[in-house]
């Protein structure tokens, strides 16, 4: 049975290191642990995919004498060998990997990048030490790395796959299962079978059954084909007489501080699934929705809309709703998993435009006691303000207010799902 390199590395990435990393990077231990769980299989898979690369093999061979395992938190982030190795493994997919892990674990991109260096250092150092202890030459190291291709899937945490890490098609030795995001080693390719929809029976008949005066297929098959053709023509005609309209509900929610004006669309709509894409921030890729909060804010700032605004009155009518930031029900200081990713995107935007100032707003639906709603929404807004302050952009957050259900548009008697649109956090630019 081949060696699982995770057994070599687990001693280096234990609870003690997780606690130290959390303190050093200013992240939660759970976030650090999740990030390591996602980065480890990516690094192992990347090394396995480059098992015949001389540069990779040299780095592993020399790692045993570098002392990197003794100072992972201090040395790995500044180690040029590790940095070059990461670039070799991931290439232009590096930023996508860092961003995906940050979003998955709810940590900052900077922390994700530092952890990638740390995990790579731990992996390379552990494999290098094993190779030295067991007198493995580069051929032996290459074989050890190749053996990992069949076990990488067992290292993946729930909800994550190599496909979701934006690392492209480098893992050519893996096959992705769309049903459960697991990664399976490829099996021998089976002959491809073209499948078409038909009303004909699915049983297979030998050629002999189509011969002879007693066979019914001579007249039945053309009849079935004729019926199928008629059905197809009928469906095409039906499509021409049907109009399908897709729009987004409550696509325009404009609130103001002074007049409490709310406009919204009451259109009944079909649900449109949003897909994360790369949003360009002056050359840095942020994960977000096209047309979502980050995309709109960056476009506004690049257009000099903020710079040209005469005063705060010119800005107060435009709020940007968070797509991913949500609090646990009834809580004002506990974010749901994955919320910090978009907050980190906001931090990146503010750092890229240091002259910009913002205001945070919290909102609730129409249910419950309004006094409590006001307090809850205000506490949530101030929680985000404080959180942003800890990330070094507090001077750019000039206010945080809670509006309770003041701007809610959905009746209290509506379903919980319908009222969700009113329970939100938002941000606007301010002067």
Summarize the topology.
Elements: H1 6-9, H2 15-25, H3 29-49, H4 54-63, H5 72-75, H6 80-90, H7 94-105, H8 109-133, H9 138-147, E1 175-176, E2 183-184, H10 217-240, E3 277-281, E4 284-288, H11 293-302, E5 320-321, H12 339-352, E6 357-363, H13 370-393, E7 397-402, H14 416-419, E8 424-430
Helix pairs in contact: 2-3, 3-7, 3-8, 3-9, 4-8, 6-8, 7-8, 7-12, 12-13
Keywords:
alpha+beta, 431 residues, single chain, 14 helices, two-stranded antiparallel sheet, globular
What does this entry look like structurally?
This protein is of the alpha+beta class and 431 residues long. Helices cover 43% and strands 8% of the residues. It contains 14 helices and 8 strands. Strands 5-8-6-7 form a 4-stranded mixed beta sheet. Helix 13 links the parallel strand 6 and strand 7. The longest helix is centred in the N-terminal third of the chain and has 25 residues. The chain is globular, with a radius of gyration of 28 Å. The N and C termini lie far apart (65 Å).
What is the H-and-E element order? Answer: HHHHHHHHHEEHEEHEHEHEHE
Distance between the termini: 65 Å
Strand content: 5-15%
Radius of gyration, whole Å: 28 Å
Largest beta sheet: strand ordering = 5-8-6-7
State the share of residues found in helices, binned by percent.
40-55%
**Separate helix tally:** 14
Largest sheet, in brief, is:
4 strands, mixed
Averaged pLDDT: 75
**Morphology:** globular
Spans of at least 5 consecutive residues whose pLDDT stays below 50 are 168-214, 239-272
Number of strands: 8
What class do helices, strands and sheet pairing give?
A: alpha+beta
